[in-house]
Amino acid sequence: GTELLTRLKKALVEKEDVALPMFTSCSPGWIKFAEYYYPEFLPNLSTCKSPQQMFGAVAKTYYAQKIGKKPEDLVVVSIMPCTAKKFEAQRSEMNSSGVQDVDYVLTTRELGGMIKQAGIDFELLPDDKMDAPLGLSSGAADIFAN
């Protein structure tokens, strides 16, 4: 995105000293590893939150406002394959609305166990309409098709 382009412009055009290469910030395991073992590379990390945390922030700010609720009245549960996402959700800086962006994180294994324990058979569930709280698409992808 624009963060990388901004860094490249500063480095290549404006000849400024910037932190390159830029490293991903989407993995909380990687972030913790870098913080502990390679703090000198922290400026190289993207300032973007992970997709999990971005969703939580949007849910607790934009969506809460859209439905007329306070952020603290919403509960965001994330289903993720990595146990490090549980740690990430509890980091003190993950609170865009003044409350934690993501309240609970279940691993995919935990969710699978809950589904099995509840005896849910997806083949036997009736068809239903999908909810679309933020719409189905924004049309932004059209920019890349042209």
From TrEMBL:
Gene3D superfamilies (alphabetical): 3.40.50.1780, Fe-only Hydrogenase (Larger Subunit), Chain L, domain 3
Organism of origin: uncultured organism
All residue ranges annotated as the Iron hydrogenase large subunit C-terminal domain in the record: 4-145
UniProt lineage: unclassified sequences, environmental samples
InterPro entries: Cytosolic_Fe-S_CAF (IPR050340), Fe_hydrogenase (IPR009016), Fe_hydrogenase_lsu_C (IPR004108)
Pfam families for the chain: Fe_hyd_lg_C
Protein name: Iron-dependent hydrogenase
Coiled coil: none
